[in-house]
Design brief:
By secondary structure, the chain is α+β, with helices and mostly antiparallel strands. 38% of the residues lie in helices and 23% in strands. The longest helix has 21 residues, at 117-137. The chain starts with 8 loop residues before the first helix and ends in a 9-residue tail after the last helix.
Amino acid sequence: MHTNKETPPILTLLQMAPDFHHYCVQEALKTGDTIPASHLGDNLYLIESGFLSCLRDIGTDEYLHIILQAGDFPYLPSDDEETPEIMACEALTDVTWWKIDPSFFNETVRQKDPDQAFFTTHSDKSRKNIENHFLLDRMHPEERIYFTLLNLMRLGSPIASNAIQLPAFADHQKIAEYALTPLDYTTDILNQLQANQLLEKNGTITNVTAFNAILESKNIPENNLQ
């Protein structure tokens, strides 16, 4: 489970370089700020805290919603031609990120991470996001909502042994947007979960075990998201 509070390991690695503050500048975004793709072109941006929602253009008038958190980059030079281009990003919460000179980043990672484990992890996550989109696209609308809730649970915070608080931005509108389902239908499904005492209005999944049982009954993969 990701609480989005600890310093990302890649940031710790970069900060070990003596000239870190010469090549890296901390910036802040407010909730609702939008960042066009043109803003991301000349530098790299590493999220230190908060959540960004980004759209990737996967062609045929389709867009892949991805949620980025601490330790993520909207774009890296290692992204291959098969990685869909990011069109725009929106700050789902207040965000702190670092604007990083690409040459400094590449040289520091080359020295500190010669096996390129970080780039491998980044590429694997990007590929899995794409795979999950096509998996979601083949699901029944109700299943898409459960699958989306599972994704959001992994970004939330445990508040008890069997309960998870979803991220604050996870309102009905955002859940419908990520699940690719109409808002009215999404609200009906969420209301059913509330009636069954599995979801509170404040966004708490009150019984993770029971929720996972629903996933299993509908053959929704539980381990496909990170």
